[in-house]
């Protein structure tokens, strides 16, 4: 017998949560391995259908889980233009930003070491995304989202954009994208402050020696 319920207390970095059946009843443990479509990950509030089961210790868990109406598929096809436009804008912005950095180094406005910092952190960020993508596909321990955001804040957001586009990882999760955008804005604002203001220039010189 299949039941329908709502996902709750979902911990995406650990790949598990619970489901509360519609109309009330006993909640059941949910693991990412039990989903029939593991290319899409659930969020809190998602409706799913599942079979109810108990383990040898009498604990309740859900198996053979499917999204109601294939929610994530519907989402990805309902707004393709918005997603494509967003990805295109992000790519163009990253390219222009990198051109700006190289040009600023060429005219002596930015020290070469700062360009190296952006490049190095971007490479590390890309590799971190790749590791997390592999972990998601193989049901291993995930890298926390705040770690990915921290790398972006420190200057790795160009590498994060490349990873999102080429690896198709974290690119459709709206909550993640909202925080990621904030990290990009903060990083660019901070760079502008370092380059434009006198205090910023002094601070940058002190850091870079």
From TrEMBL:
Pfam family for this entry, one: DUF1294
Transmembrane intervals: 89-107, 113-131, 175-196
Keywords for this protein: DNA-binding, Membrane, Transmembrane, Transmembrane helix
Molecular-function GO terms, alphabetical: DNA binding; mRNA 3'-UTR binding
Gene Ontology CC: cytoplasm
InterPro entries registered for this protein in UniProt: Ca-reg_mRNA-binding_domain (IPR052069), CSP_DNA-bd (IPR002059), DUF1294 (IPR010718), NA-bd_OB-fold (IPR012340)
CDD domains: CSP_CDS (cd04458)
Residues covered by the CSD domain: 2-67
Gene Ontology biological process terms from the UniProt entry: regulation of mRNA stability
Identification of the protein by name: Cold-shock DNA-binding domain protein
Origin species: mine drainage metagenome
